[in-house]
Every structure is written in structure tokens, then in C-alpha cells.
């Protein structure tokens, strides 16, 4: 195999190759405005090529291993389609816990074996820090597709790219995040990316599910305006991007506590009738009742387009870390 | 994505594009003689190309999602090989019930997500009507690979194509169906296709497992001769195509009832010694004792060739709905 | 399909096509020095091509079915990467026991169905003799990827190829096998291959887990020097290749028996400090404590390179049996 990591694993924040060649993608903290600009530009090129020809041979010669220790059909399928549309191939490994790979074998050993066959590894693992552990062992790039309560950086990157494609830019926007903001890995990472831009963030949740104070403090330091409210109505009219997430019943102390708030966070046709004409509604999916189906036909409903943008972002990441973008 | 459905979903029987572009394949009722002729001609071209070069780039640029809510290795593998031999790629999704896609997500949402990555979706689902529900939500073509007690149209289409390839034509043939004709989704759909041709159909089963009267009436209306008997010997000598299906023990009221008939419906070397020299024996497989292994080496045993024809029919369907045939 | 087996299935030892076209790969007994030389030469070409271009179109047009009745992620992934790097496609079938293929269907029927779609079948099965049974039924080549307590020939072939690549040749080497030599399918097959060369084999194990006497007798007949000892120290200094395998606790009569020997068979930095400077340490993986992680960074640690050589050997086998090498 000729692909080698060309940069040592750097602490977050240090100078990096702006084009990511040979790099692991572990955290949104690896990205600044310049690198996001590169990523989004390449993702835009990927979109154009897919629309014109469907697949193309940019990564012909490359084999990706999709190593999933827990199921995530959405993320896994998106990466499979991404590498295939780039002319590469995939070794798909599902449900590792049932297979011989996991028979007492350490994650580093599994990764060192699989990189013998492939040029990069996408890793989904239930434990925080698993992606970093894999990256430390591997010669080939590791892309974190979710490490339990840790990060899921490609989700936040596709969220940010969706906003850029739909709204034209991130600067100047008011983004409202709705739902369980305490436990939502997705909104935490997205907030960190928004903090790189001239944005304003509204948090809408019950007090008990508010954004963690340390994250609010971190984003405050970046000079981004933030506001918390329990009432969507207070911020809806000014919202450019409404980012809806699940509120899981099991997070509440009692079913009554849940029932008290859940209904008020369901987006309906009536809700968006009070929103801007050119705003968008996003959701990481799957949704389970947070957005009524009647909203789907509204052009502001961006959540299915968001899935498609996700494929373009993953294509761009693969092309970049494999040195072909 | 540039592939869009170009025809609205039409009620069965209405005029359609004879070349299927952008169409969902949900039911054998979508097919008339003209459309079957197109399908079989394209399937024949696929066979010729596979025999000459193995794979070719007719669907290069296309990604197929194989979405299986229940296992069906035979059907799934056939579609995977079909898209690969056409130069396309596949996103394989098995055992959806164990995966995050199904975590309370509706089928329409799952389908709308997966069509973001792909150009068509093959769907296997345990519930009747699932394929139609998916098709109503999707912009990309849906191919029904079995919706529980509903339909499994590609099975019937490959059965009909097998007869054409083996016997030269459908018109003029006597087809004998054997086994559990009451519950057999396969024979019901095949009978509907045979009714489009100048055929004669014999049904051989115990009275309790006879063809449903409403289906017999429907086929009678088409002017096709039908006959029911419990005795294969009564019709064997005139049979051009013997279509054997399973009799499942659990369908009977008592084990004794089962034992009384099961033996008489096992095809042996002795059975086919009484059949025409140029007839064929078919079976949708898997078989579990309905045809003795000694029959396999007889040139009239067409059931393994039937599997291969199935791949050509699925290649033809994919090429047609994706507008490349 | 145009690919046909061109040679009848020959008893082991009979003259065969030196280039394997159309042949089943069931056992290491199919290989002599000439055929191994061919295999290793082609594997070396595969390595060169992968290093230069990653993938190439030698098997474009070919579809491989990977039929795994029991999980073996390592072997399965290696074959998937192998066919993909050769420009071919794969139909992956995992966990057959949960799928419809296995619903009472015989292995020959399953194989005859799947060969309708593909050009060769890689079979992993828990029962000894399954690969031979499949090969007897199939028209297309069957490659045995492990049939329970039977053989796993591609493992032994990649082991031998690793030694050739790392040490330059097999002749003249002293190979020391360590661990459970009684039950180890891997070391049995490797010993048979070593017996074709001018080698010396040391067996290091507790008496209760020694190499089976009938195998020792077979290898003795080939004129190869063999020695058994329970003490690695007695042979370490003369060892060119140290082949380490697992000792499974459950093989022992009592935990105390296990504890008495297990520690002395763990390879550490101290162990290899007493070994030759240019020897290598091999392991079929996964390891569970038999080799300390501190050994991994030693250039003599060859076990991860061994995985990569495995892919080249499998590429070579596929190219040979499909007539493109």
C-alpha cells in the first residue's frame, strides 16, 4: 500500500495540511473556517459531479473499510454510497460483536488487520475515545462515524454544509436548536462549528435539558450570541435555521414531566406558518413525531435534502484524506 | 440526482411507458403482453452480454439500495449480482429490524433517506402493501421484492421468462401447477401472467389447498382453460411445464392429513419417466423434498437454470426502470 | 456463464493444470513445490500491482460469492478486498443460518443456486467435508475458507507465502511452532507445506497438546527433521520463523494445568531479545495475550504484514482459478 499518513497526529488547534491528506477525522475541533471552506468547496464539486454523472473514478484504486461495532444504517449507507460514487470499493463489517474479529481481540489489533486490506477505515464504536485509540494504532486514516457519547463529526459537518448550501452562507444567520440539548451530541458539535462564524444561537428546551454550561461558556468566548428559552414562540420569527432534535421520554424523571413539554416541541404546519418565508427546518433523523408529516411538503423542510448533502460531505472527506481532492 | 420519475403512479391497467423508465415495479398486474415482450427481449440481451463479457457498464453511475426488512438470501443475492453485472453499485441493508433505521422510523422516512444516496430501491418487507407505501413516498423507482402475503412480482416474471427461454414461447403450452396452490403467492402471480397468453393450466393439489376460487374466476374471464385434480397422473402426460411448489406441513389440520398427500406430490425419476421428452420441471426453490435429487441430472430439470434466468430478468428490470435499456 | 471447470475433480496427488484454471481449492494437499512456486509468483505480482495502483481490472467481469455459514470477519474481509482490488465484484452472504437459504435447503442446492449468479464461491462452513461436498455439486470453482475441523488451506498458503516474502525462501529454514499443536488446524496444514521444502520443524507445546503422531509420521516420511520440546528456550536461538498460536483454556483438564504452561508461551520483548536478529514472529491472529504488545514495534514482528500477504495470496488464487493469471 502506498498511502501513508504524512502528518503526525497533531493536538487539536495546531497547524495542519489544509487539504487533510493522510489525516484522521476524529473531532469537529480539527476544523477552522479555512478548512471548513475547503471541505464545503470540495463537497460542492462532489454534488455537481454526482448530478452530472452519478459516479466517477476519483477514488478508483481505493478500498474503504466500514467498521461498525454498532448498527447505524443511515451513516453506514451514506459512506457506502459515497465511496461507490467515487469509484472506490468498500469492505463492509457489521455487528462486529457477533463476529470473530471481536473474539477478545483489541481494537488496535482489529484496525491494524483491516488496514492491511484497505486505504482508510470508517469506525462506529459505542465507546468514547475509540476513534482516537484506533487512530493511534493505524497507519491509514481513521474517520470517526460516532464513538458513543464522544463525537460524530461527520454529522456536524453535514449539518453545517446543509446550511451553507440552503442559505448561501453561515455568517449572519440565527440558528435555533430545539429539543434535548443536554444529551444531544449532534447539537453540541454543530454549536462548536457555528461558533467559528458570525452567528447567533437560540437554545429552546426545558430547563432540565438545557445546553451544558461549559459548552455555553466555550461558545461565549468565541463571541457568539446565545440565548436560552423554553418557548419556541419567543424566537421563531427571527430564526433562519430551526434545528429540531428528539426529546427522549426516558431522559425525564417522570412521564408527566415528559408530557408537559413534548407537545410544545412538535413542529407542525401551524408552527412554520409563523416562521420566515426563507428559513429552513433541519433534523438529523430519524424523527419520531417531532415534526408532523404535513411539514414534509413545505419547501422549507430541508431534512431529507440534509441526508443527500451528507453523502457529498462524506465524499469530500474521503477524497481529501486520500489525497485526491 | 438527475433521475426522476417521469410518469405519475398510474392505476393498474392504464397506459404506461412501454419501456418502464422511472416506474415502480409493484405487481404483475402492471404487465401486459407488450410489456412482457419488451422485458423478455431485454432479459435475453442481458443473458447474451453476461455470457460474452460477464459484466458491462450499462448502469455505470447508478447505485441501487437493496433494502431487506426480512432475510431472503436468494432474492437479495440475485439483485446484487444483477446490478454488479450491469456495472452499477449496491448499498446492501439487511435485517433492518435490528438497525437504527427501524428505531421507530416510518417506512416512508426510511425510503426518502435512502433514495438520497441511490438511484432505485429494491424492497423486501413482511407487510402487504409496504411496496406501494414506499413507492408513494419515493421519487426514485421502487422494486417490490416481496411484501409478505402481497406480491413478489420479479419471481413471477422470472418464471414466465424461464418458460419462454426453455420452451420458445408461452402460447400453446399446458402448464401444471403442483402443491399448495391456496397459499402460494408464486403460483397466483404466475397464473395471472399465463392468463395473458394462449395457455392451459392444470392445478394439482388436495381439495383443501386448491387455487382460490376468485383467482380461478379471474383467469377464466381471460379465456384460459383451467382444470383441477388431486391426481398428477391424470394430467402429467399432457404437461409442457410442471411447476412444483412446497406443501408445508403446518398448513394441514392434522399430520395424518399431510402424510396422506405429501408423498404423492414428490417428483421422482419414475414420475418424469411418464412425462413428455421435451417438458420442463420448475420450482421456485428452496425445495425440501418435493423433487428427488435423482431428477437433477435430467435435462428437463430446469430449476437451477430458472435461478440464472432470474438474474437476467432483474438485470432487465433495473436497466428499464433506470432508462438505460 | 462461460466459465466452466475445465478439469475434472482429481484425487489429490494426480497431475493437474499448473495454473489451477477452473479448479476447486479444497486442501493444501493439492499443492506441490511447482504449484506453490506458481502461486507465490502470482501473489508477488499482485503485491506489486496493489502497491502501484491499488486496484486493477484483471478480474473485471467476474462476480465472487462469499458464502459464510459462520462468521469470520478476517477471512471474509480479505477475500472481499482481494476480488475488489482485482476489479471484480462480490455477493456477500453472512450468517446463512439465519437466512432463507438455510431453511432446510441442502448445501448442494444452495451452491447450485449461487453459482447461477457468480463465477466462483468462497465457502466457510462449520462442518468438515462441506467444501468437498459443495465442490462435487458445483460447476464453478469452490474455494475452501475453512470447513470446521477440516482444512483452511488459504491460511496455510498465506503463512508459507509470508515466510517466502520475509525470509527469501523456505528451503534451509528452521520453523518453530508454539502453542496448542494438537488442535491447531493452522499448524497442521502449514507443517504439510513445510514438508515439501528442505526445512526443520520444532514443536513447542505441553505434552498433552503435542502434534498428532500420525501427522508427525507423515512429515517424517517426507524426510523433514522434527523435534518436540516443552521448552521454547531449547530451540529459540536456532529459530528462523517462530509461529505462535493460541492455547485455549478450555482445552485443558483443569485451570491449574492451563496456568502451569500458559505463561511460559507468552512472547515478550525479553523472549525475542534471545532470538536471531533476522528471524520473524508470526501469528494467525486474533491473538489474546500470546504475544505482548511491546513486541509489535520490533521489525521481526511479522503478524500484521502476514495479514496483508494473505490478501495477495487470495488475489492470486482467484486470478488463477478464474483463468486470468
For the sheet with most strands of chain A, the description reads: 5 strands, parallel
Overall pLDDT level of chain A: 91
Number of strands of chain A: 9
Assembly level: homotrimer
CATH architecture of the largest domain in chain A: 3-Layer(aba) Sandwich
Query: Briefly, what CATH class of the largest domain in chain A?
Result: Alpha Beta
Q: How far is the first residue's CA from the last residue's CA of chain A?
A: 19 Å
Strand order of the largest sheet of chain A: 7-6-5-8-9
Classified in CATH, the superfamily of the largest domain in chain A is Aspartate/ornithine carbamoyltransferase
Question: How many helices of chain A in DSSP terms?
Answer: 10
Relative strand content of chain A: 5-15%
User: How many domain regions of chain A?
Assistant: 2
What gyration radius of chain A follows from the Cα positions, in whole Å? 20 Å
The structure class of chain A reads: alpha/beta
Unreliable stretches of chain A (pLDDT < 50, length at least 5) are: 6-15
How do the helices and strands follow one another from N- to C-terminus of chain A?
HEHEHEHEHEHEHEEHHEH
Can you give the helix content of chain A as a percent range?
25-40%
Shape of chain A: globular
CATH topology of the largest domain in chain A: Rossmann fold
Largest interface: A-C, 30 and 30 residues
Amino acid at each position: 500500500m502506498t498511502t501513508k499518513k504524512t502528518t503526525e497526529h497533531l493536538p487539536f488547534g495546531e497547524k495542519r495540511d489544509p487539504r487533510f491528506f493522510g489525516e484522521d477525522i476524529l473531532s469537529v475541533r480539527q476544523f477552522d473556517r479555512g478548512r471548513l471552506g475547503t471541505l464545503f468547496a470540495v463537497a460542492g464539486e462532489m454534488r455537481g459531479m454526482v448530478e452530472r454523472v452519478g459516479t466517477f473514478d476519483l477514488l478508483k484504486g481505493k478500498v474503504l473499510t466500514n467498521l461498525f461495532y454498532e448498527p447505524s444504517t443511515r451513516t453506514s449507507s451514506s459512506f457506502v454510497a459515497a465511496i461507490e460514487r467515487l469509484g472506490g470499493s468498500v469492505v463492509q463489517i457489521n455487528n462486529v460483536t457477533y463476529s470473530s474479529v471481536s473474539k477478545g481481540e483489541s481494537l488496535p489489533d482489529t484496525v491494524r488487520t483491516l488496514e492491511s486490506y484497505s486505504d482508510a477505515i470508517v469506525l462506529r464504536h459505542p465507546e468514547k475515545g475509540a476513534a482516537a485509540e484506533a487512530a493511534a494504532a493505524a497507519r491509514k486514516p481513521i474517520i470517526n462515524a460516532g464513538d458513543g457519547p464522544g463525537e460524530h463529526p461527520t454529522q456536524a459537518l453535514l449539518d453545517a454544509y446543509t446550511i451553507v448550501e440552503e442559505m448561501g452562507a453561515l455568517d449572519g444567520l440565527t440558528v435555533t436548536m430545539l429539543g434535548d440539548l443536554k444529551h444531544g451530541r449532534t447539537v453540541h458539535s454543530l454549536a462548536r462549528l457555528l461558533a467559528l462564524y458570525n452567528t447567533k444561537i437560540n437554545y429552546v428546551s426545558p430547563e432540565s435539558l438545557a445546553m451544558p454550561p461549559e459548552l455555553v461558556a466555550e461558545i461565549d468566548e468565541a463571541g457568539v450570541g446565545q440565548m436560552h428559552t423554553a418557548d419556541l414562540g419567543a424566537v421563531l420569527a427571527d430564526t433562519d435555521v430551526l434545528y429540531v432534535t428528539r426529546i427522549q421520554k426516558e431522559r425525564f424523571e417522570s412521564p408527566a414531566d415528559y408530557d408537559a413539554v413534548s407537545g410544545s416541541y412538535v413542529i407542525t404546519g401551524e408552527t412554520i406558518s409563523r416562521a420566515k418565508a426563507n428559513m429552513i427546518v433541519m433534523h438529523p433523523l430519524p424523527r419520531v413525531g417531532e415534526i408532523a408529516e404535513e411539514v414534509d411538503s413545505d419547501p422549507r423542510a430541508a431534512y431529507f435534502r440534509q441526508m443527500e448533502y451528507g453523502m457529498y460531505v462524506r465524499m469530500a472527506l474521503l477524497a481529501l484524506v486520500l489525497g485526491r481532492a
